[in-house]
């Protein structure tokens, strides 16, 4: 997630991931913070957690 509207989703998820450009409020509830979207953050998180190689 990256916006305030994602906070409840991140809290409900078994593993919450915030994007690098997310607000500090979002980052504070995330379990992991990846890079920004334009820095391949989604892909990097998927690789980090073994979903992609």
From TrEMBL:
The keyword Repeat does not apply. It is an enzyme of class 3 (hydrolase). Keywords: Hydrolase. Its EC number is 3.1.3.18. It holds the Pfam family Hydrolase_3. The keyword Hydrolase applies. One of its GO terms (cellular component) is cytosol. InterPro entries: HAD-like_sf, HAD_sf. GO terms for molecular function: magnesium ion binding; phosphoglycolate phosphatase activity. This is Protein containing HAD superfamily hydrolase-like, type 3 domain protein. It comes from human gut metagenome.
